[in-house]
Design a protein that fits this description.
Shape: flat
Strand order of the largest sheet: 9-8-7-10-12-11
Structural class: alpha/beta
Number of helices: 9
Number of strands: 12
Oligomer: single chain
Length: 332
């Protein structure tokens, strides 16, 4: 792997062998943002290598997603990031559910999420842009939202100031304008960019590696490849922060295990009926909670057993209701 090491008053990049720290755990592989102990003096270094990675230092933060819905492996995208900048393109309709998904994983990582609404110059109506920002703020309570344009420079200075300290990781779908934004923030053409595909307006995966870019105003930016899918990964705390409004309402329900369906005195359902909470947001909360439980259950034996019991109970209730319905029809 490439690593940046001190070199006099500056730094230089070396190629280091990671074999000494290789494990079978995909979450412990060296990742962009890691701090490592590198041996540059050993005589064991192979050809075209400058050193050996002897150890990885403990991570302060780690952004992890599910590698696949069919497997129990996680994939770490960046380590030791202080800020998780989520790029959301305004060139396409907003997907607030995807915003909530990214923000939940960002909170879970330990980094401070920040939403960058890219290509803001494509929204000519100021009132419309303000509404889009407000919609995203509603999906991500407590998260800063910045409308930015790499073409006009709108919002870029404020974003750069927010990232002037620490390390930031730039995340988002392919085609969200991450590479262009990274170039503007870095003050140089550090990343190659391409036009979107004509047939569907999607990105072409211009960035295929995770790159560490120093920013002229201070701080470091990790640019990542575009993500077509972002699966949940043990993000219970992140979901609680993202959906703090839903969980605050749920605490007022009569029953602590209220499913917010047909139970009496359900504060969540009352809030939806009264327009205080959108049905879309409640559906998104339920969906992400279910997905997260399924992922956790793949490695948590007790949760897996609990989910099996819940499924059997649901099947039994369904059979009983069907039997009662058939009996009622016969009596009629």
């Amino acid at each position: 792997m490439d690593a940046v090491v001190p070199d006099g008053a500056g730094v230089r990049t070396v190629l280091a062998d990671t074999a000494p720290v290789a494990t079978g755990d995909p979450l412990r592989v060296p990742c962009t943002g890691d701090w490592a102990v590198i041996d540059l003096e050993s005589g064991q270094v192979g050809p075209q290598l400058d050193g050996l990675v002897r150890a990885l230092l403990p991570r302060r933060t780690a952004f992890v997603r599910s590698a696949s819905s069919k497997r129990s492996d996680g994939q770490i995208l960046a380590a030791n990031a202080d800020h998780a900048v989520i790029a959301v393109s305004l060139a396409e309709p907003l997907d607030l559910g995807r915003v909530e998904r990214f923000v939940s994983l960002a909170w879970e990582s330990g980094a401070q999420p920040l939403l960058a609404l890219t290509k803001a110059d494509l929204v000519a109506d100021g009132a419309c842009l303000a509404q889009l920002v407000a919609d995203v703020e509603g999906a991500a309570p407590g998260v800063r939202v910045r409308a930015v344009s790499a073409d006009t420079g709108e919002g870029v200075q404020a974003l750069a100031a927010a990232l002037a300290t620490g390390t930031a990781v730039l995340l988002g779908r392919s085609g969200a304008g991450k590479s262009t934004l990274a170039n503007v923030l870095a003050g140089r053409p550090a990343q190659r960019v391409q036009a979107l595909r004509d047939r569907d307006g999607k990105g072409r995966h211009t960035t295929t590696t995770r790159d560490l870019l120093p920013l002229p105003g201070g701080g470091v930016l990790i640019d990542t490849p575009g993500l077509r899918g972002v699966g949940m990964w043990d993000a219970g705390d992140g979901l609680s922060r993202t959906f703090a409004d839903v969980e605050e309402l749920a605490a007022r329900c009569r029953f602590p295990d209220c499913a917010h369906g047909t139970e009496p005195d359900c504060a969540v359902r009352d809030a939806v009926g009264g327009g205080l909470l959108s049905a879309r947001r409640l559906d998104s909360y339920r969906k992400l909670q279910r997905e997260n439980r399924r992922i956790v259950a793949k490695t948590d034996v007790r949760l897996r057993a609990e989910m099996r019991r819940e499924w059997r109970l649901k099947q039994a209730v369904g059979r009983e209701m069907s039997a009662r319905k058939r009996g009622g029809l016969r009596r009629g």
